[in-house]
Each structure stands twice: as C-alpha cells, then as structure tokens.
Write a structure and sequence with these properties.
- By secondary structure, this protein is mainly α.
- The chain is built from four helices and no strands.
Length: 109
Amino acid sequence: MMKINKIREMSSPELEKELGELKSELFKLRFSLATNGLDNPMKIREVKKDIAKIKTVLTERELKGEEPVVAEEPKKAEKKTASKAKKEATEGTEKKARKTTTKKESKAE
C-alpha cells in the first residue's frame, strides 16, 4: 500500500504512469480471482485504494490549477459524444414517428 506523502511527492506524469500500472494490476488480480488462482484477495482492496489515492492527488492538482497530464480522458469523451449522437439521432426519428402517427390518428377521426 502506498503512502499518501509518497504519492504527493511524485510528479503528475509519474502518477499517470503508476495509475496505468495499478489498473492493469487490478485487472490481473480480478482475473485471477475469477479463475480461483488468487492467493490474497485483500490485495484487490489495497490496489483499489492506491488507485483512489492517486486519482485524488491528481484531482487536487487539477483544482489548484496545475496542468495535469491525462492520457485516458479524451478517449472516454469521444465515446460519449458518439453515444450522444446516436441517442440524438434516435430521438429525432422517434419524434418524427410520433408526429406521423398523430397526424394519421387525427385524419381517421
């Protein structure tokens, strides 16, 4: 388990690198747990806490105005915009479908 003071001494790029390593370690631990090969299940908890500490320090730095080095955020933003575009396109067709059914119903009356 990493100490918060040690984390605060690290630079933002170092923290980003460490965050990536911890995320891959967490993936491996979860995979091992699923395949019944994990010796120490508490290791998952420790890694998750370390990830949270690093994210907290990065967020504190961002709020102070320091320039954080973020490698994963743009990818997530692109996925969100793509899903939003799909959702908006779907909503547009649903609205058209509602209008046409309303017109048909009013003509039938």
